[in-house]
Amino acid sequence: MPENEHQKGVILAIFAYTIWGIAPLYFKLLEPVPAPEILLHRVIWSFVFMIGLLGLTRGFSSLKALMTYKKKIAVLSITSVLIAFNWLLFIWAVNNEHMLDASLGYFINPLFNVVLGLVFLSERLSRLQWFAVALALTGVVVQLISFGSIPIVSLALAGSFSIYGLLRKKAKVDAQTGLLVETALLIPVAILYVVYLVQSGQNDLMSYDLDINLLLLLAGVVTSIPLLCFAGAAIRIPLSMLGFFQYIGPSLMFILATMIFKEPFGLDKAITFGFIWAALIVFTADMWIQRRGRLTIKNSSS
After folding, report:
1. CA dihedral 19, 109, 230, 45 (to 10 degrees)
2. In angstroms, how far apart are the furthest CA atoms of the chain?
3. What b/e string do you get for 239-264 counting C-beta neighbours within 10 Å, with b at 16 or more?
4. Residues 6+ apart with CB under 8 A from 4
5. How many CA atoms lie within 13 A of 165 on its CB side?
6. Is 101 within 8 Å of 154 (Cβ atoms)?
7. What span, in angstroms and rounded, lies between the C-alpha atoms of 140 and 115?
8. Where do the domains of the chain lie?
9. Measured between alpha carbons, how far is 111 from 132 in angstroms, rounded to an integer?
10. For 117, phi and psi rounded to 5 degrees?
11. SS (HEC) of the chain
12. 205: pLDDT confidence band, cut at 50, 70 and 90?
């Protein structure tokens, strides 16, 4: 791949994960709005944004082609539920002083991906990868035994996003078309919820102050742009490099949670984070070793 395309991939990856990392700042501004309503706006305005984007890029041909694959549509109906659940839980976590749990969830995510690859894609784990998974599991078990709690929010975020990624990988649908279909499948539920809010007199979706309403209108951009940047990066740089960049997001969330929003960082979280960070160090080292090995073999053969 040309060097300029590789550089574009790096920039897109950094941009995507940075936006995901600072997204809590956006959702904190929407704290007066209930999490389900924020999700409602994410779905509606993401759908509108993707319709406009596909119109500009003339991408409706790929949508038309996708409509002939019933199995892919069925998979996307499942992924739409998974991503909606993930969005809702993330919004709730950010606005209910569980940002550290959200950060931990996205630190755990790559380890979940490894396990899912083992179970569903028949991928083999190296000894270091097994050790990394064991370290992560130990951190959760120690928290459960010593403190009588389990990071349910973190595990739910990591699990839902990992399964989402696995199904999207197997469906082999491009990011733009996939997101459009997923949000389109959620639109009927969103409309029913709007009708419920209006008829019950709770909200008419535009009853907030102007600044809040404008922020809600931006939900589609905030949701779609980093996902599209991620998709652009994925086709330009190696997966191992992309995996390294993904730690930007939860690292920024961790900084925001502890430094800006002063969430309590007790001994239970410190121990769990410690084990997860150790697991990620081992996991990243293994990826680096394998990459060096492949480059050595490639250079020697050429």
Report:
1. -60
2. 71
3. eebbbbbbbbbbebbbebbbeeeebe
4. none
5. 21
6. yes
7. 15
8. 3-301
9. 8
10. -60, -40
11. CCHHHHHHHHHHHHHHHHHHHHHHHHHHHCCCCCHHHHHHHHHHHHHHHHHHHHHHHCCHHHHHHHCCCHHHHHHHHHHHHHHHHHHHHHHHHHHCCCHHHHHHHHHHHHHHHHHHHHHHCCCCCCHHHHHHHHHHHHHHHHHHHHHCCCCHHHHHHHHHHHHHHHHHHHHCCCHHHHHHHHHHHHHHHHHHHHHHHHHCCCCCCCCCCHHHHHHHHCHHHHHHHHHHHHHHHHCCCCHHHHHHHCCHHHHHHHHHHHHHCCCCCCHHHHHHHHHHHHHHHHHHHHHHHHHHHHHHHHHHHC
12. low
Give the pLDDT mean for 241-268: 87
pLDDT for 11-48, tens place per residue? Answer: 988 999 999 999 999 999 999 889 999 999 999 999 99
Name the residue with tokens 């742009």: 225
| Closest residue by Cα to residue 180 from 91, 15, 67, 92 | 67
pLDDT digit string, tens, across residues 65-119: 899 999 999 999 999 999 999 999 999 999 999 999 999 999 888 888 888 888 8
Nearest C-alpha neighbor of 111 from the set 288, 282, 293, 294: 282
Specify the pTM: 0.85
98 with 153: CB under 8 angstroms?
yes
CA distance 14 to 5: 14
What token pair was written down for 106?
Answer: 């996205």
Tokens, residue 193:
């919820």
